[in-house]
Design brief:
The protein is α/β, with parallel strands linked by helices. It has 15 helices and 12 strands. Strands 2-1-12-11-10-9-8-7-3 form a 9-stranded mixed β-sheet. Strands 4-5-6 form a 3-stranded antiparallel β-sheet. The chain is globular. The two termini are about 25 Å apart.
């Protein structure tokens, strides 16, 4: 009997031999996964700009994207201990989760709850990017207080979700972009000293519930991957595989962590070179997937922002399914093909 969407995703993440490639391509009409944001109510959530639940002020231009924080409420390092945080037990969050769970459970999808801005991104949204980078070296005690308070908030939300929903949820994920085009924003030694133990606290809480840990991180984050694995991360969403080096990442990490990925959103997809897309899809599966699992094919959520129309996404979709490393030649057709159409 074929695996359910939930089973195939979990098998890929845990290297337990999925029977086909897991697919998360909602823009084309198919996904084995369902994500639920752990969101408070705020002006920014309702309108896309303005104040969020942390007091950060978001602004957007006419360009189609999520915008960025232009107003940082922590204007001095002395504010970090007493600045009011959102309530991690806010009923608004969990009422939304309870309602949202009905749809994926009916279709046996893999359900993940997501925390926008897990740790580093939340730090610099509150205080400003340059101030956080400087503070890690010049005001380390204040930065430790801020980081620990954010970790405490995240852990409280995770455990509250576990208390209310248990194994109806399969993973906790979030976002923390960590790299420039060349390297991490900070030295690997500083990352190991400051951030590794704090991610470990978050991921220990997730694993205590039997869930998987997932993280999106853009840029060349190669040197963070072994430390994230050490902290307990199970699956990393990398959308710029060329920035990291497909072969280099495969050599070091294939079989040690699951990759959620696609053709490069910066160097490959926006160019619309169909041959390059097909070749890169096959290359990624050869180098990052293993026979036991380790790869999920996933969309980039905003094709408009990077100039990738659905017909180009379909070229990529067909290439990944054609090179599916898990489905036997005599097995049934991939369910995504029927959902998306010929």
């Amino acid at each position: 009997m074929p695996m359910s969407p939930r089973e195939v995703v979990r098998a890929a993440i845990r290297f337990q031999s999925p029977d086909r490639l897991p697919v998360d391509m909602g823009s084309l009409g198919y996904s084995d996964m369902f994500g639920i944001g752990l969101e408070h109510d705020s002006e920014r959530r309702r309108t896309g700009s303005g104040r969020d639940e942390w007091g950060c002020i978001w602004s957007r231009t006419e360009m189609a994207n999520m915008g960025q924080v232009k107003g940082h409420p922590l204007t001095d390092y002395s504010m970090v201990a007493d600045y009011p945080f959102p309530d991690p037990e806010d009923p608004f969050i969990y009422d939304r989760v309870a309602e949202a769970l009905k749809a994926p459970e009916a279709s046996f999808k893999y359900v993940g709850v997501g925390q926008f801005m897990v740790l580093f991104e939340r730090m610099h949204s509150l205080m400003g990017f340059e101030n956080v980078l400087a503070g890690l070296y010049l005001e380390p005690e204040a930065m430790a207080v801020l980081a620990d308070r954010i970790v405490d908030y995240n852990v409280a939300k995770i455990l509250r979700c576990g208390e209310l929903f248990g194994d109806r949820i399969q993973s906790y994920g979030g976002t923390d972009d960590w790299g420039t085009q060349q390297a991490l924003f900070i030295s690997p030694d500083k990352w190991r000293d400051f951030f590794l133990p704090r991610y470990r606290r978050i991921y220990d809480a997730v694993h205590s519930l039997g869930w998987d840990c997932r993280l999106h991180s853009c840029g060349n984050v190669t040197e963070a991957i072994p430390m994230l694995i050490e902290a307990g991360l199970n699956d990393i969403n990398l959308q710029q595989p060329k920035a990291l080096g497909i072969d280099a990442v495969g050599d070091r990490f294939a079989g040690k962590i699951c990759f959620t990925s696609l053709c490069d959103i910066q160097h490959t997809l926006p160019v619309h070179d169909r041959t390059a897309i097909v070749d890169e899809a096959a290359h990624l599966l050869r180098r990052w997937a293993t026979r036991r699992g380790g790869f999920i094919f996933s969309d980039y959520g905003d094709g408009t922002a990077i100039g990738v129309p659905d017909d180009i996404k379909r070229v990529m979709f067909d290439a990944f399914l054609e090179n599916d490393p898990y489905r036997g030649a005599s097995g049934p057709a991939h369910p995504a093909l029927e959902a998306v159409g010929a």
